[in-house]
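Onboarding guide, step 5: your first structure request.
Type a short instruction followed by the sequence, for example:

Predict the 3D structure of this protein.
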Amino acid sequence: MGHRVIYVEKCEYLRLYLDNLKVMVKDNDILFPISDIQILVIDNYQSNISVPLINKLTENNVCTIICGVDHLPKSYILPINGNFATSGNINKQITWEKERKALLHSIIVKYKIENQIEILKQNNKSHEVIKKLYEFVDSIELDDRTNREGLAAKMYFRELFGSDFIRFDDDVINAGLNYGYSIFRSLITSIIVAKGYIANIGIFHKGKQNMFNLSDDIIEVFRPIVDDYVYNTMRDEILFKQEHREKLIQLTNKKILIDSRKQTVANAINQYLDSIFNYLDDETNKVLFPLPIIYDL
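The system replies with structure tokens like these:
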């Protein structure tokens, strides 16, 4: 997987040229080696993209995102077969033990809430709210039967964005959260496919019409990274601007801590996924979880 994040807003044509992405804007052509690209975001619904380029992007497992008129991600381009071991991995995925998935669900919820607590601490939020979230962590049951995740999220978002904040309202904060989550979800999905698994079959997300159940399981512990950016950059904004979109995309090009080491976000996702798959295959009882604080490369 490459390392570059390419955001395309003003472009008429995207073509393949000698293993390069050719971005054509009026009389100017810009070339990017496809092997260097980690994420390609096409944020112009009037752009045209060629079939040879699409195929080359999927061959190189580039996370390709296409946005709509509202600038929000609408489509992902993913390879049909991302790994030689896909058939065997899908067979394992289908037969993951129910009890082990339930236990893993509880562990993921625990670390998601702990990452939310870390963001509240970093932003000097209420000690009482932080204390309550720790109580939720200590009282998580198998498969989170008492919905500590939902209760924690409600307190967390209201403490971070104000008592009037309602998730999924039509406002700038929610636009930023949705956009950032979509970018992380697409990157996670591309890595899942590259490892020979399918995103449809999840651990605890089971939506029949959701093509990304597993991605939605994996993203949970990464969401606070987006929350922190939106809180510190967008909470007083009136409009969701291009600069916000670009910086949210660039979050995936930062470093975070996992297993006591700083890793790029993509590498952290790789390590996190490997530890989860090993856990579900009963090869280990240890899962590596990332921390939500970002560092520049």
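Each response can be followed by summary notes, for example: The longest helix spans residues 98-122.
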